[in-house]
């Protein structure tokens, strides 16, 4: 959809919103694109799906919902052993209600979960030794390949496509699907400056080499993952008011804010059409704690 916003119009720039938040009520936005091929694979092999996330992970909720919808068993490995003794927060309650078995692990083990020995131990302890493993954030090669559809759908519609990035899997696939001449900008929501290398590695694994034209914008993480300072909150509320589109705070708000700032800086020549991908929707219940949380 095209939005009428003078912050872009005064620079001769058009803004389109790619409403991936409307793809499916439970498998929202990039979650659907990243999970679909993995779900097919797990179902074909008749395996339980194991994946990983923090206490408010959008990815865990989406995986749990997919399990319910497709009749697949799911196990969520949750960062933070201490959470095991507390009542489940609304996000984890939703996962459990969708049939996901939750397995809590301490933060140091969680950090080392990609080490093959640590992973084997984790799967064993979770009672899912032969499970189909989907990494944290869902970004493996099948997920990246699934996200190429997002780029293909945007061919011929925009000069520059922007989206928020966590692991970079969505950007890696999107860029590969765009037409020559179209560019992608990924707005990092985590601090650290590692995203460019990660996107390169994800493209190498998924496609055997670099694809498309993309870059990472590292200036709009607002202090790091799940940091939503008052300025960003006010921006998101104002955007919702202006355009009637719900703005997910941890990712989408940062991408939209970045686009306004870049446009004001003159980063886009007059006549440019921008497309912002709305990769998610707000989850009621996640906000108060998510704002002060640093877990993914
Ligand atoms: C709403 C939303 N937007 C964007 C992203 C970023 O996706 P990626 O990890 O592929 O960079 C996520 C990831 O969890 C998300 O939940």
TrEMBL record:
<dbReference type="InterPro" id="IPR036052">
    <property type="entry name" value="TrpB-like_PALP_sf"/>
</dbReference>
<keyword id="KW-0663">Pyridoxal phosphate</keyword>
<dbReference type="InterPro" id="IPR001926">
    <property type="entry name" value="TrpB-like_PALP"/>
</dbReference>
<protein>
    <submittedName>
        <fullName>Pyridoxal-phosphate dependent enzyme</fullName>
    </submittedName>
</protein>
<feature type="domain" description="Tryptophan synthase beta chain-like PALP">
    <location>
        <begin position="9"/>
        <end position="280"/>
    </location>
</feature>
<comment type="similarity">
    <text>Belongs to the ACC deaminase/D-cysteine desulfhydrase family.</text>
</comment>
<dbReference type="Pfam" id="PF00291">
    <property type="entry name" value="PALP"/>
</dbReference>
<dbReference type="InterPro" id="IPR027278">
    <property type="entry name" value="ACCD_DCysDesulf"/>
</dbReference>
């Amino acid at each position: 959809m095209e939005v009428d916003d003078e912050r872009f119009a005064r620079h001769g720039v058009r803004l389109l919103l790619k409403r991936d938040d409307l793809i499916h009520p439970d498998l929202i936005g990039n979650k659907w694109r990243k999970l679909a091929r993995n779900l097919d694979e797990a179902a074909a092999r008749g395996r339980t799906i194991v994946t990983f996330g923090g206490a408010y992970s959008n990815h865990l909720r989406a995986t749990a919902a997919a399990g319910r919808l497709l009749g697949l068993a799911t196990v969520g490995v949750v960062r933070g052993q201490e959470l095991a003794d507390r009542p489940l927060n609304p996000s984890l309650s939703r996962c459990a209600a969708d049939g996901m078995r939750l397995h809590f692990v301490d933060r140091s083990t969680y950090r080392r979960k990609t080490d093959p020995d640590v992973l084997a131990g984790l799967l064993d302890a979770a009672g899912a030794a032969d499970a189909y493993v989907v990494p944290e954030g869902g970004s493996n090669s099948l997920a990246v390949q699934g996200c190429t559809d997002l780029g293909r759908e945007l061919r011929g519609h925009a000069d520059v496509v922007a989206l928020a990035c966590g692991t970079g899997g969505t950007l890696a696939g999107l860029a590969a699907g765009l037409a020559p001449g179209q560019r992608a900008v990924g707005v990092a929501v985590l601090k650290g400056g590692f995203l460019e290398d990660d996107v390169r590695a994800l493209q190498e694994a998924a496609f055997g080499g670099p694809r498309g034209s993309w870059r990472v914008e590292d200036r709009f993480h607002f202090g790091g993952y799940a940091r939503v300072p008052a300025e960003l909150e006010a921006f998101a509320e104002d955007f919702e008011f202006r355009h009637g589109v719900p703005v997910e705070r941890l990712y989408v708000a940062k991408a939209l804010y970045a686009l306004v700032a870049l446009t004001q800086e003159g980063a886009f020549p007059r006549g440019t059409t921008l497309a912002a991908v709305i990769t998610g929707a707000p989850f009621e219940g996640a906000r108060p704690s998510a704002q002060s949380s640093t877990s993914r």
